[in-house]
Design goal:
The protein is α+β, with helices and mostly antiparallel strands and about 450 residues long. It has helices spanning about 1-25, 30-35, 40-45, 55-125, 140-145, 195-205, 215-245, 260-275, 280-285, 300-315, 355-365, 365-370, 380-390; strands spanning about 205-210, 210-215, 250, 290-295, 320-325, 335-340, 345-355, 410-415, 420-430. It has a five-stranded mixed beta sheet. The protein has a two-stranded antiparallel ribbon with strand order 1-2. Strands 8-9 form a two-stranded antiparallel ribbon. Helix 12 runs antiparallel to helix 13 (about 380-390).
Length: about 450
């Protein structure tokens, strides 16, 4: 059957080629005599004839095989390329390792040669005539010189590499600085609820030992302290000039400015004792924000006080207070005076002491501070007062000091002219001891 089908297929092929040749050669009768086969004849052919296979299925399979073929070849190429790249990379690594091993071997060989040359040079060098008396130096061990290898440079710090041929003894010890400790990051302050903020704003001020000054009055006290620091610059030269002219000693000149905490306690204590008093009234009563102490011996005490008062009155300093306690049978003994500076208009205090009265004042200073604390009981204050009286009873009174009077007191009047404030002194007649008159409010 297979042979029969092949013969029929060949016969059909030859008939087709003959018809094609006849048409090309323009054979009219032959072409006309053989009519073309209708399209339906191949279906009515007998079973013996071989049907023409469909022409569409075979090309489709071939195209699919052709499409799959290039894909397989591309994958094979990629795999082969990867293998070749891996082989090349492995070959490069092997070459690099060999080159590094060669360099290391060359370095070792150079170090060995250098050590051998040094040994040969030491053996060949002639010894000095005095070398026979000295003991021979120990020869370096060749094994150590050969076995020692230069240190490998650190990979992290290539800038500090050192040559391999350098002696290990010639290398300077590298001092590494310790790493700087960074300060811990500051965390932002935790936010407070609004209720606490309002309470802080209301309670902002000054508190100490049960005393309190609110924010508005505290600002006034700070202004007063700044004014005292400014006035001290013009008052101190006058006091030093008086000390030179009267041969007096200025004691505790570094403590001429009263401490701010002391002034705040005095203002708060005054306002607490009299609720109707304002901060301005309490500050007007403070005359010792700037204070000085002049000291003379007992013989020249009276003359020194008289000369000082004359100089201050001549410089137009107004006398605000004069307290002579030398005539008291017990208690504090000295002369305390308050003055108003003519240049700045700020009050200051002058104390006139003898050496023994000043020593007694230093002794009773802790007792005085304890008596003015709010926690001190009345019984303790009575005990303190008794101790202070016993200390001051040992102070002798200079001759004539009980009769010392202050100059004519001058009260200060403040006037505003063209927007500026002026201070004018008005004389007031006094006899022996008087109290300070409160200055007019601005």
């Amino acid at each position: 059957m297979r042979i029969h089908r092949a013969h029929t297929f060949r016969a059909v092929a030859w008939t087709v080629t003959a018809a094609a040749l006849a048409s090309t050669l323009s054979l009219g009768p032959a072409a006309a005599a053989e009519p073309a086969c209708p399209p339906a004849e191949p279906r009515q052919t007998p079973a013996n004839t071989c049907p023409v296979p469909p022409t569409k299925k075979q090309p489709a399979k071939k195209q699919a095989a052709k499409k799959q073929a290039p894909k397989k070849t591309a994958a094979k190429k990629q795999a082969s390329d990867k293998q070749a790249a891996a082989k090349k990379q492995a070959a490069r690594k092997q070459a690099a390792d060999k080159q590094a091993a060669r360099k290391q071997a060359a370095k070792k060989q150079a170090a060995r040669k250098q050590a051998a040359e040094k040994q040969a040079a030491r053996k060949q060098s002639p010894q000095a005539p005095t070398a026979a008396c000295r003991p021979p130096r120990p020869k370096p061990k060749p094994a150590d010189s050969c076995q020692t290898t230069p240190r490998k440079p650190a990979a992290k710090k290539p800038a500090r590499k050192q040559p391999a041929a350098q002696k290990p003894s010639a290398q300077k010890p590298t001092t590494q600085r310790p790493p700087r400790k960074r300060p811990p990051a500051k965390r932002p302050p935790a936010k407070k609820p609004p209720a606490q903020r309002k309470q802080l704003k209301q309670d902002h001020g000054w508190r100490s030992e049960g005393l309190y000054i609110d924010a508005a009055d505290l600002r006034k006290v700070n202004v007063f302290l700044a004014r005292a620091r400014k006035a001290e610059r013009t008052i101190s030269p006058q006091v030093r000039s008086i000390a030179r002219r009267t041969n007096a000693t200025v004691v505790s000149f570094d403590e001429r400015l009263r401490k701010p905490e002391s002034i705040k306690r005095a203002v708060a204590r005054t306002m607490q004792g009299d609720p109707t008093m304002t901060a301005e009234d309490a500050l007007a009563r403070i005359n010792n924000s700037v204070r000085y102490i002049l000291q003379w011996p007992d013989r020249s005490y009276v003359k020194g006080v008289q000369d000082t008062t004359k100089l201050l009155a001549g410089w137009k300093n107004a006398n605000l207070r004069w307290s002579n306690t030398w005539a008291r049978p017990r208690g504090y003994k000295a002369i305390n005076s308050a003055w108003r500076a003519n240049n700045s208009g700020h009050p200051y205090e002058l104390q006139f002491h003898t050496p023994k009265s000043r020593a007694a004042q230093r002794r009773i200073r802790p007792l005085y501070e304890e008596s003015h604390r709010s926690r001190t009981t009345s019984q303790r204050r009575a005990q303190i007062q008794g101790e202070m009286n016993r200390i001051y009873a040992t102070v002798p009174c200079p001759a004539g000091s009980q009769l010392l009077n202050g100059p004519r007191r001058r009260s200060a009047e403040r006037r505003v002219v063209n927007g500026r404030q002026y201070v004018r002194s008005v004389p007031v007649m006094t006899r022996n001891t008087f109290t300070a008159r409160e200055p007019l409010k601005p």
